[in-house]
């Protein structure tokens, strides 16, 4: 069971990063909307993961993305922020002892909870990402617009992927 | 200590977040040229503003000393002003008359016809004998440089034998040592920006960049800038040096010229005519 989770996550990591780097990196609408689907890997890590391992994985994933995007540290920082939001949201919205689901996916948690969870995590990630990339307060309007549009794009793709791999479970 | 440890481990998510976040920001700023430059610039600006504030404050501390020195300077200036404004009636007053001794007067004229492409170039100006122009007068360019000599005069017009003419020879000298030479044009080159200085004595050293001025021995007043040497030694067949020079006059854009009237020209001519040739 445990090794299965590890293998599934490794496959997911490779697939998502492959799609992100070789497909979505070349996509974009007028430089305004760019999807960052790889955050789905961090969203779907199992509930029981220790915080330090989560941060380490987020940092490593971010650095890998940075290597391809040639923006050393920007994605890593954004992923760290995403992890913090993830930990906070889970600890606030769910009772830690009552969690018996393996991972926070759409199939287990339902549409309402998952969409809010994904929305908060993605918007935190994108805000940090775009502001670190721009590194200016003067272009705040443009940055916010890019951030919002990219958020919508990313969320759409995340929900699409989750619905494709939807497993009906007996809850 | 134990409580602190419990506190940290309880909120480990937050502390780990802070640590990783700082590492991420550090990596971003260190490895991206643009982000690094922005950070450095803004921090420099903050430091600069702080120093500026400090400087304003420091000026206040020195105010007393500055005041004292200003008062001392004021007193010194006032005493010197007093000696200047007091009129000394025992002095003789001399008025220097610059008009009666003035040798040259200048008359502005407009160029109505000009040629620069011929072997011997002549131009026409809109002032003539009614304005007091006589043949042989010198003509100079407005800013600097010389134009030529008046050749024929009618009532309202005059023709000028330009410097760009085979018969024009003008007495010039090197500004640095007054060595004489004569300025000619069209001896081998027909570039309107260049002329030759000839018949400079052999022991004179000419360098690139030496200024050439009129000598004052012809109709031209002494000391008018003519040009600058660009090639000091041009081989000639005689025992004198030659040099090529860049003319200051731009003949192609000449609009106005000054005709130089020499008040003593007649007197000089009359005096010199007393000496018979071969006497």
Description:
The complex is a heterodimer of chains A (171) and B (279). Chain A contains 7 helices and no strands. With 171 residues, chain A is mostly helical. Chain A has one domain. Chain B folds into 2 domains: 62 residues, no CATH class; 160 residues, Thrombin, subunit H. In chain B, helix 2 crosses helix 3. The longest helix of chain B is centred in the first third of the chain and has 29 residues. The N and C termini of chain B lie far apart (126 Å). Chain B: One of its GO terms (cellular component) is plasma membrane. Chain B: Pfam families: MreC. Chain B: InterPro entries: Cell/Rod_1, Cell/Rod_MreC_2, MreC, MreC_beta-barrel_core. Chain B: Keywords: Cell shape, Membrane, Transmembrane, Transmembrane helix. Chain B: Belongs to the MreC family.
Model regions low in confidence, pLDDT < 50 over at least 5 residues of chain B: none
Number of helices of chain A: 7
The share of residues in helices of chain B is 25-40%
User: Which CATH class of the largest domain in chain B applies here?
Assistant: Mainly Beta
> What does the main sheet of chain A amount to?
none
Show unreliable segments of chain A. none
N-to-C CA distance of chain A: 19 Å
Task: Give the SSE order of chain A as H and E letters.
Answer: HHHHHHH
Major sheet attributes of chain B: 6 strands, antiparallel, barrel
Structural class of chain B: alpha+beta
Strand order in the sheet with the most strands of chain B:
1-2-5-4-3-12
CATH superfamily of the largest domain in chain B: Rod shape-determining protein MreC, domain 1
Beta-strand percentage range of chain B: 25-35%
The total domain count of chain A is 1
Strand tally of chain B is 12
Q: Tell me which oligomeric state these chains represent.
A: heterodimer
Helical stretch tally of chain B: 5
Name the shape of chain B in a single word. Answer: elongated
How confident is the prediction overall: mean pLDDT of chain B? 83
Q: Tell me, rounded to a whole number, the average pLDDT of chain A.
A: 87
Rg of chain A computed from alpha carbons, rounded to a whole number of angstroms: 16 Å
Protein name (chain A): Rod shape-determining protein MreD
Keywords (chain A): Membrane, Transmembrane, Transmembrane helix
Organism (chain B): Pedobacter agri
GO cellular component, one term (chain B): plasma membrane
